[in-house]
Amino acid sequence: MVELAPWCRPHAGATATQVAEILMTIPMWMLLGFATWTLLLLMVTVGIYRWIEILLGRKRIGAFRSDQVEGDDWYRRSMRAHANCIENLPVFGAIVLALYASGVSGPAVDRLSMAVLAARVVQSTIHVSHAQTDAFVSVRFSFFCVQLAAFLALIVLIVLHAMHG
């Protein structure tokens, strides 16, 4: 049996559901969802494109250079969408860790965390699936702004809790 840290242990009469809530909060599930989305985006776009090119004999396995932008437009957008996920995943991870360590929770935290993941999925999907006209870039950027606003709101909740808690 795994021994939990003292600050993570449920009280003696805790139900299985209460123990599960202590171990995996909504923000943690959203962080796991963000990581899963990042991997799926890589596999379904970049991975499939590269394997098709390799298996059809159009490219060698070593032909895909990280220091060179090449390939179809949607492939380049897919690479950038994946990089966007990689850039923001640690930020969300740090915020979720701070939420958990500080004990900040509640419906607002849950909704903001869900907004981060939902906005990330929509932003990435728009990035990959549409040529980047001004209209699509504006919509995509709006969903990025939702994520930024949610990140900042979560940080504010952590700081306020630390100042008054």
CA radius of gyration: 20 Å
Q: What is the CA-CA span between the terminal residues?
A: 33 Å
The number of distinct β-strands equals 0
Helical content band? over 70%
- Element-level helix/strand string: HHHHH
Count every helix, treating DSSP H or I runs of 4 or more residues as helices.
Answer: 5
Major beta sheet, specifics? none
Strand content: under 5%
Q: Could you name the CATH topology? A: Four Helix Bundle (Hemerythrin (Met), subunit A)
Low-confidence stretches: none
Secondary-structure-based class equals mainly alpha
Going by CATH, the architecture would be Up-down Bundle
Shape: elongated
Q: What oligomeric state is this? A: single chain
Tag the structure with descriptive keywords.
165 residues; mainly alpha; Four Helix Bundle (Hemerythrin (Met), subunit A)
Task: Produce the secondary structure layout.
Layout lengths: L15 H8 L2 H30 L17 H30 L4 H23 L4 H31 L1
Helix pairs in contact: 2-3, 2-4, 3-4, 3-5, 4-5
Quick take:
With 165 residues, the protein is mainly alpha-helical. Helix content is 74%, strand content 0%. Helix 2 (26-55) runs parallel beside helix 4 and helix 3 (73-102) packs antiparallel against helix 4 (107-129).
Description:
With 165 residues, the chain is mainly alpha-helical. It has one domain: Membrane associated eicosanoid/glutathione metabolism-like domain (Four Helix Bundle (Hemerythrin (Met), subunit A)). 74% of the residues lie in helices and 0% in strands. The protein has 5 helices and no strands. α4 runs antiparallel to α5. The longest helix has 31 residues. The two termini are 33 Å apart.
